[in-house]
Design goal:
Largest sheet: 6 strands, mixed
Organism: Niastella caeni
Number of domains: 1
Protein name: WbqC family protein
Number of helices: 9
InterPro entries: WbqC (IPR014985)
Low-confidence stretches: none
Mean pLDDT: 94
Distance between the termini: 27 Å
Strand order of the largest sheet: 7-2-1-8-9-10
Number of strands: 10
Pfam families: WbqC
Radius of gyration: 18 Å
Order of helices and strands: EHEEEEEHHHEHEHEHHEH
């Protein structure tokens, strides 16, 4: 079984969904500490053809609290304002009619209270839209070891044990974090995913803005094209990644 474990982000960039599509089981790491100024409750879209960072407001967000404990502030107001922002900036995008309606349905499907819920749902529902067969779990629902002395890699290995994983895939930025030997000792292959240099047509074709939210991708390309983009990546070992970097 191939697995990946990541904190839940709100409508993350295309590379996150490539990781989702590359594994059999995807675990949202939702019972770890919230990261201030991270990507859990924020991402980027286009505004006036330049990257603009949007943020879901939170109640007493702190790195001393777990992701799945933190509440959203004034969700109804934020939802209304965010949808208006998307309409203003993407109404001339080729896939706007379809995807804006999809987003409206998503945001009004629940009165979201917790950031851990809306972030994980944003990933799951986009995966469903793109017909990915990946199974989703939450680390808070798994009985893995959580002693204070455990580091992030130890926790990942505990989750791998529970799920009987034989391959663990991580984004390329984990190359400096994870050591191959502890995985090999448990007969688990450690692999890293690296997104290809992907471009699609935005409003200004000579000024492509990369690494924006999946919202931007699906405003400009249809679902089948976005699904094809998910396969444009390289999967390699730590040694192999260092060799091609």
């Amino acid at each position: 079984m191939n697995i990946a474990v990541m904190q839940p982000y709100v409508f993350p960039y295309l590379g996150y969904y490539q990781l989702v599509g590359a594994v059999d089981t995807f675990v949202f790491f939702d019972d770890v500490n919230y990261i201030n100024k991270g990507w859990i409750n924020r991402n980027r879209i286009l505004q006036n053809n330049e990257p603009f960072r949007f943020t879901i407001p939170l109640v007493k967000a702190s790195q001393n609290r777990l992701i799945n404990e933190i509440e959203i502030a004034e969700y109804d107001k934020w939802r209304k304002d965010f949808l208006k922002l998307l309409e203003l900036n993407y109404k001339k995008a080729p896939n706007f009619s379809f995807f804006y309606k999809w987003l409206e349905d998503f945001f009004y499907s629940k009165e979201y209270r917790l950031i851990g819920e809306i972030t994980s749902d944003s990933v799951e529902q986009i995966a469903k839209l793109m017909n990915l067969p990946t199974r989703f779990l939450r680390s808070s629902d798994l009985s893995y070891k959580t002693e204070e002395k455990q580091n992030g890699q130890d926790k990942i290995l505990s989750i791998c044990d529970i799920l009987k994983a034989d391959q663990y895939i991580n984004p390329k930025n984990g190359v400096e974090i994870y050591e191959e030997e502890p995985f090999t000792a448990k007969n688990i292959r450690l692999r890293f995913i690296n997104m290809d240099d992907i471009k699609y047509h935005q409003f200004e074709r000579d000024n492509f803005q990369s690494a924006l939210s999946i919202i931007d991708v699906l405003m400009f390309v249809d679902v089948s094209t976005a699904r094809e983009l998910l396969n444009k990546y390289t999967l390699t070992t730590k040694i192999g990644y260092n060799a091609i970097s």
